[in-house]
Amino acid sequence: MRTLLGLLLLPFCAAVTCTVWNLVPAAVAAGQASPVLAWGLAGGFFLWLVLFLCLPRPVTAYVFAHELTHALWGWVMGARVSRFRVGARGGSVTLSKSNFLITLAPYFFPLYTILVIALHGLLALFYDLRAYEPLWLGFVGLTWSFHLTFTVTTLRQRQPDIRIHGRLFSYALIYLLNLLGVGLGIVAVAAPTLAEFGAQLGADMLNLWELGVRLSRGAQAWLQAHGPARP
Question: CA-to-CA distance for 27 and 18, rounded, in angstroms?
Fold first, then answer.
């Protein structure tokens, strides 16, 4: 069943990939993206890549975010958290119940990025932060890069979280939700609205569906023409 669900998610993954791929050059060509904000976001992202590759990795900080994300998603979905352990060699959290979202949340939910955005929103209620927007977006890029690098590194290992729900379904869902997060980040930096992003995503899904139908009909016609002759 999980394999079938994973296969069903693949067209959505392809559609979101097309949408995000086309959204970036379209925003740049239209002059919609603020260069200062874009450079702030990209600067933070690549700064973390350099730190990740050149300095000792803060594994404990990632493990803490990983297990806390399990706990937070479990708590939101009505689970009781009875044990929380974090260390340099790993961690664990005990919940009264679980599901695929709770299990896979650390791989698609960038906790530190969400905290940076929430802190910015809170402070913006009391202070004018427009002069510091590049700095805030730098922290967003840095924390999202932190999430991405550790997620990729972790998924290269044999993770019990992935085995529980199957690799195809887990990887497809993680990829889909992470890329949706990238799309929302583009919407936040550039002029395209959330409605425009959704409309573009719907159009790309329709185009992929039509392409799939044409390929299916073409394959069926080829098989009828070159298949074994019926007696």
Answer: 14
